[in-house]
Design brief:
alpha+beta; Helicase, Ruva Protein, domain 3; 2 domains; 10 helices; binds zinc ion
Length: 273
């Protein structure tokens, strides 16, 4: 499932293709959206915004296309009318004179006006977006200590988009490792130093993943492993997807557990209880 950094990378790519360019053609697969297609043609895209794992394409009108990729949605930006070979179903296409932005498989697509956007249930639920550059470590730390959240187990909390928008399963394991926190704790069980480390890791791990297209491991370790010829899958993460492999820091075998219904990886030494 794409997480915040992947959605933001897709948004950057779509922005390069669409922003400040008049739209020449729009396709919607869903009948309920088809009436909007004509209304959007000739409009200029002014911005591509992301909020957690949701994306909002802003048109001058003002009209907004909200989309959420859920598990299977996938964006492609291609030369005009050049469609990828895929078994996925095309759900939306936005074309300009030279390029096409194509959304496959996603089922959550809505066209909204300004008022509808302002009260959109998912967008209003995401109060803090981890890729929002205005968000500070202090603000994230305060959120961990907020009464609404501080008695909930960290692995559950870190997947809750209401707590922090944009985090998902690989980021959850990686943040807990970088902060050196035992996964089953609740914020209320943590020392203030651990809360600070968690807040710092939330922002730094997510930002690094965005900048490096998904690499959350220590970049010096990554460099070393690359030179030794390791494939990306083996140097990409500290602990995620590395069950039984040696921790890069201490050599202990990484443990995999199922928490909140999703797999979680940690180092029992670096993240001792
Ligand atoms: Zn370790």
């Amino acid at each position: 499932m794409p997480e915040g950094p992947e959605i933001r990378q897709a948004a950057d790519e779509i922005a390069k293709a669409l922003v400040d360019r008049p739209v020449t053609e729009v396709f919607f697969a869903f009948d309920r959206l088809k009436p909007f297609a004509e209304e959007l043609v000739g409009q200029t895209v002014t911005a591509i915004r992301t909020r957690g794992k949701a994306m909002v394409i802003c048109f001058e009108k003002p009209l907004y296309i909200y989309s959420h990729n859920q598990l299977y949605g996938r964006w492609y930006v291609r030369k005009l009318h050049s469609y990828p070979t895929t078994n996925r179903q095309l759900r939306m296409a936005i074309h300009t004179a030279k390029q096409s932005a194509l959304l496959y498989s996603a089922s959550e697509i809505q066209v909204l006006n300004e008022q509808e956007l302002a009260v959109h249930p998912f967008l209003s639920r995401v109060e803090m977006d981890v890729l929002d550059q205005a968000v500070t470590i202090e603000q994230v730390a305060a959120r961990f200590l907020d009464k609404r959240f501080f008695r909930r187990q960290l692995p559950i909390l870190l997947l809750d988009q209401h707590f922090l928008g944009g985090l998902g399963n690989y980021l959850r394991s990686e943040i807990l490792f970088v902060a050196r926190v035992y996964p089953a704790l609740r914020p209320v069980d943590c020392t203030i130093e651990q809360i600070d480390s968690l807040a710092q890791a939330v922002l730094s791990v997510t930002l690094q993943s965005y900048k490096t297209k998904g690499i959350t491991n220590d970049l010096q370790i990554v460099d070393r492993l690359k030179k030794l010829g390791y494939p990306r899958s083996q140097y990409r993460h500290h602990v995620f997807n590395r069950e039984g492999k040696e921790c890069f820091v201490c050599g202990t075998a990484i443990i995999k557990e199922i928490l909140a219904g999703r797999r979680l990886y940690y180092c029992p030494t670096c993240q001792a209880r």
